[in-house]
Design goal:
This protein is of the alpha/beta class and 331 residues long. Helix content is 41%, strand content 19%. Strand 1 and strand 2 form a beta hairpin. The chain is globular and about 55 Å long.
Amino acid sequence: MAPPGYSIGIDLGGTNLRIAAYSGQSQQMEAISLRTRLEEGPATVLRDMAGAVRSLQQKFASHGSFAGVGIGSPGPIELPEGKLRAPSNLPGWDGLELRSELQHLLNMPVIVESDANAAALAEWRLGAGRVHGVDSMAMFTLGTGVGGGLILNGKIWHGAMGMAAEPGHTVVYPGGLMCNCGTLGCLEMYASATAVRRMAAETAAASAGSLQSRLKENSAIHAHDVAALARHGDASSLEIFQVVGRSLGLGMASAVAALNLPLYVIGGGLAQAWDLFSPAMFRSLAESSQIYRLTAPENVDRIQPRMTNVVPAHLGPEAGLLGAALLPIFQ
């Protein structure tokens, strides 16, 4: 069977909204990037999505059959209904029937998936999973929050209600910082881009240094700014990524003990700082997981069969968007 002409994926983030058309061969044809206007409520964001989808449909109407629309959203989500359940990075969206609302606006079927599951699907079919030839893998996505996706025997694992694989809300520091989800000490509070920005602001307020100077120049400091300072040797910035790595290692230790998978992939925007946090992550993982110590590869930079391999994502920050576009084709 010939692949469809194209499909459209939507990556709904707490900060950015991205909509893109992909060819049947998974090549991006065009993308639209917008700010997620959370302050104006879900109805406004939904209209932004629908408008972008219609624009892409009109532009590529002559490119063959249209497979449909897929959307990756922060969770937790009830699936297959596509109902959001108190997503911590989408305040005010609790109970939103995302699938039915968008279907109503577009007058066509829409497939809703967690954003991290969408990214995991893309990485498994076209990225790290394909390269390393595995049929099961887990993915951690480090972005505005920390998401997770799980592929078991070639299929996304949703759990009973569609809420499986939410590592961002695994408690890594009991009694720690209050998370937006209402729990103390969640991984998301220590290993997300939001966490990096918060730690940078706290460090700058407490002492003089490069971070304080950068904040004076630009109060909207981003995680990539902190990473740049770390790579230039700023001690405070380097320590922030030590915290990210140690915390991520603790969170991964629980996943390794529970799942014993051959491959764990670290993606999302913050994964671009892999060189800064991964050494601390591997140390923390080894200290915290007997299963990892028993199954760790001799060289973490080289995949070994029947071992616990942890690698950075191959597809980069575009994995979630690509995975959303794959949903209408492979589900």
